[in-house]
Structures are given as structure tokens and as C-alpha cells.
């Protein structure tokens, strides 16, 4: 199983594709005993039946975070939809600290009015309440927004339920040929949409900070090539198609540059590409090593990358305008595919020991490393935009699946699907 560093090596020889397909559903494989009990009451309905079960989506979102333990519907003592219908003494008997109620109404089945209230059961007070008018097509997104509000109100952290996932799939046609697809979905794996299809491999999707652009690598023109595509319009542009390898794009924090891996001078090195002008600046200089998988620090002044300049793949740091590279990882004989937490304090990576590859995190100040996963073929870690979870690819029964783990390793999820494999995950930033 290749990690992204090993894929750079493979690209120099040519790419060997993986099977993949996607329709993702979240399965909680581990949780936190400290999860907060919360009652999410099924929303009332007046008029036309809503196209989505809002309360179920909210409940599933909160459960998937590992921070909440929604009560089962069979455990609910009543189903209030208005504040005056709530008897807080009854809900305290269930030891539910939070109570979410709401209702949905529509006069025409095309536009819906949605309201909700979130209560602190023990203080008998409303924490937040809102009303919305949305079209039928916006109901699922609204449910994610409400889950974000509940999450942030009760934890003080931003929720990520309204964000998106990007990943690469491969579809087998009836004639035995293959079609690759770059897809995006909601954070819960629902509502998958295809951004690009190709008969040639697609690799390394990377979200721009604005959340509306993706950079990725394709082979559709018989060589590796980096494209940038606008999701809102579908417009895309080739930004790197030099001789040799064009790979591993990573956006700068301001969204104006890409750090890329190019071998146009014979050896894979890190370059910075200014998108507005096409100007290239070479960052690394080591003719004896493969330098790849750049990722920007949040300050925009430093870049981390994977290199085998010390004999085996390890992670190094260098100024974005070049200079002497400094080694960052020392524990384990293999560290690659870094991603940085939004606050710049933690790094996640593929950590290899004795041929097994796990997802780990490293405190960038102390250097302390914690291995988070027990599976042995993990790759492509990507931080959630609130820094709480890490999305990654792994293998289950010989096929690729996506999974997620909390930064403390306590909460584990597996995003199952009906096809054969899914690879190359990337978690979007918050919407702007």
C-alpha cells in the first residue's frame, strides 16, 4: 500500500491505480465515555412532509463527533415541539443535560419554515433558538447548520458538520474499463457529487482556503498535470504541466500560491507557484533525495515536506522562500504525509514501524508523538477544520475505506461504502 510519499516514487516509474467507489456512511467504531447525554426530539411537522428528517440528521451528526450521546427515541418521555410544552423536571430524570426541540411547516411543499430551541435541562433555560426559511433542497444543509450551532453552544468549539470531504474513487465499467472520479460529499458522507471524471488516474485533491477551489493531479493528457477547479462554476485550469513529475499541490494560507512537487530539472523538489502570475520559486535543493508532500504552516512563512535525504522518509521544515531544511521527525523509521492542525500546534502524519503504517500526531513544540490507530495500512491524514478529528484512508478486508480518529485517539469512525475502495481524502475548510 502506497502512502503519498511512496506514490511520488511510483509516479517516476508510472502510476499503478487502485480500485475505488463511494457511497459513504459513518460507523462509530469507538467512542468517548465522557460523551454528553442530549435529547434530540423528533421535529414536529405541519403541512407537507419535509424531504429530510432534520432531527435524525442532527442526532447522527452529534453522535458522530463522539462528544455527544443522543438518547434513543424509545427513551424519550415526551415529544414537545414548543417551549411551553417542556417539563424540565421530567427530562432531568433522564439525566439529559441538553434538550433540542423544533418543528417544520410548509404550505406548498417547496419552501419550508424551520424553528428550533436548545435548552439547558438542569438550568431550565433556553440556550439558543432560531427560525429559518429554506427551499426543500436546503433542508439537509440546514440540519448540518443546526448541528453546528448545538455543538458550538455546548462545547465552545466550532462544529464541522457543514463542511465537506473530497476523495478519489474508481468505477469499473461493464466492459472492464475503469473511470476515475474526484468526488465531494457532506461531512457525514451523504450527498456525494462528482467534480471530475477521467479514464486516467486522479490524485491528491487539496482544498483552497476559500472552500470553493480544489487543486488536484490528473493523467488525462498522458502525463501528470496539476489543475485548479472552481466548484461553484466548474471552471478549471491547468497550472503545472512541466516535463516530468507534477504532483502534490498544497495551498498557501492566503490561497494565492501552491506548493508543488516538480521534477522538471530531473529530481523531485519542492517549488512555490504564484497562481496569478505563474511564477515559480524553487524551495528545496537536494539532488540525492526525493522531496515531496509539502504542507504550509498556518503562518504562511514555513513549509513542511517529506524527504528521504536522511536515508528513509522523514518530515522536514524549510522557509517558504528556501534555505536550510530542518528535520522535524525522529521517532520511528518512517514518517510522511504531514498535515498541520489549524492552530499550528499539532502535526498528523503516517508513522511507520516495522512495515506497519499508522496515523500519529506530533506536538510541534515538544516533539511528543502519539500513535492514534491500530490498523496497519493507513495513509493520507487530513485535519478537520476545528482540529478535533483526523480523516484518513485505510484498508478493510483488502479494500480501501475512509476512516476518522480524534486527536486523542479515543473516538474512531469508519466511513463505509458500497463499492470496492476509496482513497485520497481531504477535509474542507470552514465555509467563508
From TrEMBL:
- Top-level taxon of the source organism: Bacteria
Q: Which residues form the signal peptide?
A: 1-22
> Which controlled-vocabulary keywords does the entry list?
Cell cycle, Cell division, Periplasm, Signal
Q: Name one GO biological process term.
A: protein import
One Pfam family, please name it. TolB_N
InterPro entries assigned: 6-blade_b-propeller_TolB-like, Tol-Pal_TolB, TolB_N, WD40
Annotated Gene Ontology cellular components are: periplasmic space
**Which stretches make up the TolB N-terminal domain?**
24-127
Location in the cell: Periplasm
Report the function annotation for this chain. Answer: Part of the Tol-Pal system, which plays a role in outer membrane invagination during cell division and is important for maintaining outer membrane integrity.
**Subunit (UniProt):** The Tol-Pal system is composed of five core proteins: the inner membrane proteins TolA, TolQ and TolR, the periplasmic protein TolB and the outer membrane protein Pal. They form a network linking the inner and outer membranes and the peptidoglycan layer.
Q: What family is this? A: Belongs to the TolB family.
**Could you tell me what this protein is called?**
Tol-Pal system protein TolB
Q: What is the lineage of its organism?
A: Bacteria, Pseudomonadati, Pseudomonadota, Gammaproteobacteria, Thiotrichales
Amino acid at each position: 500500500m502506497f502512502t503519498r510519499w511512496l506514490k511520488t516514487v511510483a509516479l517516476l516509474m508510472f502510476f499503478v491505480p487502485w480500485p475505488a467507489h463511494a457511497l459513504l456512511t459513518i460507523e462509530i467504531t469507538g467512542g468517548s465515555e465522557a460523551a454528553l447525554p442530549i435529547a434530540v426530539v423528533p421535529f414536529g411537522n405541519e403541512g407537507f412532509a419535509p424531504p429530510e428528517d432534520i432531527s435524525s440528521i442532527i442526532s447522527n451528526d452529534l453522535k458522530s463527533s463522539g462528544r455527544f450521546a443522543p438518547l434513543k427515541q424509545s427513551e424519550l418521555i415526551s415529544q414537545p415541539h414548543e417551549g411551553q410544552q417542556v417539563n424540565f423536571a421530567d427530562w432531568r430524570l433522564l439525566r439529559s443535560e441538553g434538550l433540542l426541540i423544533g418543528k417544520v411547516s410548509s404550505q406548498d411543499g417547496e419552501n419550508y419554515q424551520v424553528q428550533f430551541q436548545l435548552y439547558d435541562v438542569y438550568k431550565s433555560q433556553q440556550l439558543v433558538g432560531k427560525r429559518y426559511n429554506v427551499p426543500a433542497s436546503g433542508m439537509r444543509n440546514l440540519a448540518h447548520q443546526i448541528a453546528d450551532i448545538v455543538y458550538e453552544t455546548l462545547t465552545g468549539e466550532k462544529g464541522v458538520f457543514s463542511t465537506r470531504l473530497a476523495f478519489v474513487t474508481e468505477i469499473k465499467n461493464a466492459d472492464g474499463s475503469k473511470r476515475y472520479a474526484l468526488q465531494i460529499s457532506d461531512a457525514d458522507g451523504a450527498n456525494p457529487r462528482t467534480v471530475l471524471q477521467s479514464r486516467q488516474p486522479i490524485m491528491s485533491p487539496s482544498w483552497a482556503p476559500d472552500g470553493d477551489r480544489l487543486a488536484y493531479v490528473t493523467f488525462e493528457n498522458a502525463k501528470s498535470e496539476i489543475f485548479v477547479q472552481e466548484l461553484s462554476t466548474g471552471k478549471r485550469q491547468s497550472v503545472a504541466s512541466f516535463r516530468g513529475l507534477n504532483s502534490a499541490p498544497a495551498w498557501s494560507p492566503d490561497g494565492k500560491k501552491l506548493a508543488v512537487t516538480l521534477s522538471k530539472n530531473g529530481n523531485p523538489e519542492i517549488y512555490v507557484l504564484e497562481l496569478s502570475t505563474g511564477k515559480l520559486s524553487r524551495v528545496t535543493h537536494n539532488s540525492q533525495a526525493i522531496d515531496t508532500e509539502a504542507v504550509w504552516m498556518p503562518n504562511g512563512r514555513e513549509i513542511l515536506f517529506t524527504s528521504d535525504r536522511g536515508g528513509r522518509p522523514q518530515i522536514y521544515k524549510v522557509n517558504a522562500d528556501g534555505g536550510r531544511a530542518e528535520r522535524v521527525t525522529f521517532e520511528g523509521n518512517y514518517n510522511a504525509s504531514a498535515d498541520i492542525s489549524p492552530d499550528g500546534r499539532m502535526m498528523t502524519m503516517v508513522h511507520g514501524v516495522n512495515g506497519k503504517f499508522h496515523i500519529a500526531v506530533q506536538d510541534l513544540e515538544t516533539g511528543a508523538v502519539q500513535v492514534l490507530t491500530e490498523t496497519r495500512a493507513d495513509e493520507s491524514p487530513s485535519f478537520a477544520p476545528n482540529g478535533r478529528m483526523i480523516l484518513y484512508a485505510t484498508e478493510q478486508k483488502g479494500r480501501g475505506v475512509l476512516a476518522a480518529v480524534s486527536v486523542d485517539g479515543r473516538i474512531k469512525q469508519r466511513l463505509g461504502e458500497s463499492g470496492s475502495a476509496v482513497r485520497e481524502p481531504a477535509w474542507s475548510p470552514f465555509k467563508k
